[in-house]
Amino acid sequence: MLDFTNQVAFITGAGSGIGRATALAFAKAGARIVVAEVNETSGQETATLIRESGREALSVTCDVANPSQIDTAIQQTVEAYGRLDIAINNAGIGGRFARLLDQTPDDFNEIMAVNVGGVFHGMQAQIRQMLKQPENGHSDRGKIVNVSSVAGVRGMPMGAPYSASKHAVIGLTKTAALEYAQRNIRINAVCPVYTHSAMVDHLLTMAPNMEERMRRVIPVGRLGHPDDIAQAILWLCSDENVFCTGQAIQMDGGMTAG
Ligand SMILES: NC(=O)c1ccc[n+]([C@@H]2O[C@H](COP(=O)([O-])OP(=O)(O)OC[C@H]3O[C@@H](n4cnc5c(N)ncnc54)[C@H](O)[C@@H]3O)[C@@H](O)[C@H]2O)c1
After folding, report:
1. Which residues of the chain have pLDDT under 50?
2. Which of 23, 102, 225, 255 has its CA 20 to 30 A from that of 51?
3. Any residues with Cβ below 6 Å from ligand 1, and which?
4. How many domains does the chain have?
């Protein structure tokens, strides 16, 4: 089992779905967790679940689209736990399901502010902090994972702004990984396929047979579970990963292999 004892993990959007599963998995492996969530109630629920399991957690209310709120959340992390070892930029929104011509400038701007702005401002604040701190004894200063999507490597009919935002997350990931490789910060992205969470469970209600239609395009024959994605994120952030950086790992049950 991967061991994150004494490491500090900051996770955005950790009040639900993939973010919550990732927070619980890091906590189980020994990390101290900072839950950064725009939804104060769900963020506190995740922190409570972690504390009830005997681990340490802090919940901070943070809108990732707002750079000063991210800066404050990172400051609160360092005040509480002294350093930042791991950052997961997971918070995201799906936006409206509509063809390109029916998407408005507001639809586009809102998705970009959260899904791209959140990763851009998040990495700025996180890397600034990681560069200030000594290496952790395992030859790395920090690990960052950004949550993109299969829609970050493929087009997504009815979701042009979302697909554009997730392509941008991969561009940010690769560029930051190249810029900070020699400073011993490893930066990767994960690209989930349809995964059971509030975001996808909402899509499942939009048409009959929706889950069956999603399942049919995933070679392993099922949708993802948040824990499937969490396990990949944990490995990318582990001491076992010293050489993988700048990658967008497809967590898609084989979908993009075809
Ligand atoms: N579920 C999927 O099928 C799937 C597939 C590919 C990618 N993703 C990506 O995974 C990530 C997590 O999504 P999920 O499926 O767990 O969805 P989810 O809706 O269950 O969780 C998203 C969380 O992000 C939070 N959030 C939203 N806007 C925020 C903001 N401005 N600031 C801080 N927090 C904010 C929400 O409150 C929520 O708790 C997203 O980036 C999403 O795009 C999900």
Report:
1. none
2. 225
3. 12-13, 15-19, 37-39, 42, 62-65, 90-93, 114, 147, 149, 192, 194-195, 197-200
4. 1
